[in-house]
Design goal:
626 residues, alpha+beta, 9-stranded mixed beta sheet, 6-stranded antiparallel beta sheet, 20 strands, 41% helix, 20% strand, globular, binds adenosine-5'-triphosphate, binds magnesium ion
Length: 626
């Protein structure tokens, strides 16, 4: 009994203490923000009677009308302090509870609105107020809002109905001049002190503690300010500075800065090409930003060598220019964002770029060592399709890949990734052509060249004609275009060697109404040279019908017939092989099994024991159980 009483009295004292702390916090905040008018209310409950009357008199003199609005109670309520007093905010664990009553704080807070790092005061968006507030843009209406780095940065997509233009508006915390000074000093001090090794989470923790150390010496302890500073330091020391939130936005495919005083443009998955509210206005700042991007991709850029191609640490592809000699509007950069998850064949079905039947066809081609090329316009998804199709390569096949910038990822372990090297400071340059010649001595079973642009194209076709299985991509829009590019300078593939390529998939970005979609217009087989005319025989197997948005089988495959004969299959065997594969892909797509980590083991199982996997699949169909 006595114990119970003790606990009750302990709780009482704790509550009193918390209440006192909260009152102190509020009063110090009021003082800081010089809302003198609020002081009397503050004292009302806590101060001695005499002082209270005195203060009351003061306020009546000052601004009697506002008194009602600015009571301590409303203020505490506004800051969620009432909840804190009861210990409820700390316990609030559901999103509903956190967001209750804060619908106006858009985008709506979620669990991530509470930032808690060991050694730092906890920031809670509801208690301490939002970090970033959207000021609105006159003439524009809002289409959508979403977090990119909660609770620090969110995006508002806007539309101007008059001009029919859209704007991608990034909202981040705003720093006052003195806060900016403080930040600059801290960033300066932090440089070079972040360890190179360790996981990103460890680095973030280290950085936060270090920043807190500086802030403590300056007696800064306000949770909101502390986390605001930590956010900006993290952004500039570990992230990509001003464009860090854009890198974090999974809806963005490309980020481009076309020069000084022009807004950064994006390619957004939903809104396509869209300008942003971010502009570099200082030439020096833009130059140093481009230099730091190049450095982060391990390359050198200078006014003497003003262009660079590289891969950023997160895998994104970088192209940049420095100064205004080669790009007249000043330094530029284009970042092709790295897809966090590599594409799988199931993604291709889900996006409508291939049908399960087309993928079953390509699967048999890969399995039977046919040469493939993905051809199409810029950014139509050639590399992504190539990467996805690579899942059909048997798990133990030796793969050698060659690229100018690393983009490809294979799950197979028996893989040598190669990248070219530019000639920097007297070093010997290593081109795709050099790499390809080397690669042929590495006894590859599959050779993958990221993109054919120059004389490596000829070596690739030579490799194809000497029995190597090769996959690559090429920029071209039509079959004629592709043939001309391959035959013309600088690729120079002799006409009679073109037939070494077996299958070409022609992709494009097309419009379906207002929607931009990636589709495979046609899959063709290069079926040898016509003995009479010497012309290249093209056999179309699949074609996209834009009206129905469906793929049709338009011709009989000569290659499938070849495979059938080589493997001793009957027509029925071939049909079965194709339908089972198409069914497997459709099965995965229907169940949303798209991720690389999930699809790769299924492929591995397929190669280990196709009968077993297909039998399991049949049972699932029969019983409906996974
Ligand atoms: N089938 C698809 N459906 C939807 N998005 C896709 C598809 N394929 C690729 N993408 C997206 O399109 C962007 C460009 O893809 P990718 O790099 O594969 O194109 P590319 O044709 O190789 O480009 P480039 O011509 O620059 O080499 C990437 O952001 C990727 O995530
Ligand atoms: Mg590509």
């Amino acid at each position: 009994m006595a114990e119970k009483e003790k606990i009750a009295s302990d709780k009482k004292t704790m509550r009193k203490k918390l209440l006192r702390i909260e009152k102190e916090k509020v009063s110090s905040m009021l003082k800081k923000t010089s809302h003198k008018k609020l002081e009397p209310k503050e004292v009302k409950k806590s101060g001695p009677k005499k002082r209270r009357t005195l203060e009351r008199k003061k306020i009546r003199k000052a601004k009697p009308k506002k008194r009602k609005k600015l009571t301590k109670k409303t203020l505490l309520k506004k800051r969620g302090a009432k909840k804190l007093r009861l210990g409820a905010v700390e316990e609030a664990s559901t999103v509903g509870e956190i967001t209750k009553g804060f619908e106006k704080l858009k985008p709506t807070p979620t669990k991530n609105s509470v930032v808690s790092i060991e050694g730092l005061p906890t920031y809670n968006m509801i208690v301490h107020g939002p970090m970033a507030v959207f000021p609105g843009v006159p003439g524009y209406r809002e289409l959508e809002r979403y977090w990119v780095d909660e609770p620090f940065a969110f995006v508002v997509v806007l539309e101007n109905p008059e001009t029919n233009t859209r704007l991608y508006y990034l909202v981040e915390p705003v720093l006052t001049e003195s806060e900016q000074d403080l930040l600059d000093t801290i960033v300066e001090r932090m440089r070079g002190s972040i360890p190179y090794v360790g996981s990103p989470a460890d680095k973030e923790k280290f950085l936060a503690k270090k920043v807190m150390g500086f802030l403590r010496t300056l007696e800064v302890s306000d949770p909101k300010l502390v986390h605001k500073i930590v956010y900006f330091v993290r952004r500039s020391c570990l992230g990509y500075g001003e464009i860090d939130p854009l890198i974090k936005d999974p809806n963005i495919e490309d980020i481009s800065c076309n020069g000084l005083n022009t807004p950064l443009f994006l390619y957004h998955r939903k809104y396509y090409n869209i300008p942003t509210n971010l502009t570099f206005t200082d030439a020096q700042r833009l130059n140093s930003f481009v230099i730091s991007l190049a450095e982060r991709s391990g390359k050198m850029i200078s006014f003497g060598r003003p262009t660079v191609d590289g891969t950023l640490p997160d895998g994104s592809r970088l192209q940049a220019t420095l100064g205004d000699e080669v790009t007249t509007k000043g330094s530029t950069f284009t970042i092709r964002k790295f897809a966090k998850e590599p594409f799988t064949p199931v993604h291709l079905v889900k996006y409508g770029t291939y049908s399960p039947e087309m993928l079953a066809y390509l699967w048999l081609m890969v399995e039977n060592k046919k040469n493939l090329m993905f051809i199409g316009e810029t950014a139509c998804g050639k590399t992504s399709s190539l990467n996805a199709i690579s899942l059909f390569i048997p798990p133990d096949a030796k793969i050698v890949s060659l690229e100018e910038t690393r983009e490809l990822t294979f799950y197979q372990e028996n893989w040598i990734p190669n990248v070219t090297r530019e000639a920097v400071g007297g070093e010997v340059p290593i081109t795709l052509y050099d790499l390809l010649r080397q690669a042929l001595r590495q006894r590859p079973e599959v050779l993958v060249v990221g993109e054919v642009r120059g004389q490596e194209g000829l070596v690739l076709f030579q490799a194809m004609s000497t029995g190597h299985t090769c996959y690559s991509t090429l920029h071209a829009n039509t079959v004629e275009d592709a043939v001309n590019r391959l035959e013309g300078a600088p690729i120079n593939v002799p006409h009679n060697m073109l037939a070494a390529l077996d299958v070409a998939c022609f992709q494009s970005i097309s419009y379906l109404g207002k929607r931009r979609v990636r589709r495979t217009n046609t899959i063709v087989e290069f079926a040898g040279l016509d003995p009479a005319t010497g012309g290249l025989r093209i056999n179309e197997v699949f074609r996209w019908d834009p009206v129905r948005d469906k793929y049709d089988k338009t011709g009989d495959s000569m290659l499938l017939r070849e495979i059938m004969q080589a493997r001793g299959w009957s027509q029925a065997d071939l049909e079965r092989e194709l339908t089972e594969r198409a069914k497997l892909i459709k099965y995965l797509a229907d169940r949303d099994i798209v991720r690389y980590e999930d699809v790769a083991p299924i492929m591995r199982n397929f190669y280990a024991n196709p009968e077993k996997l297909l039998k399991q699949l049949k049972e699932v169909k029969k019983t409906g159980r996974d």
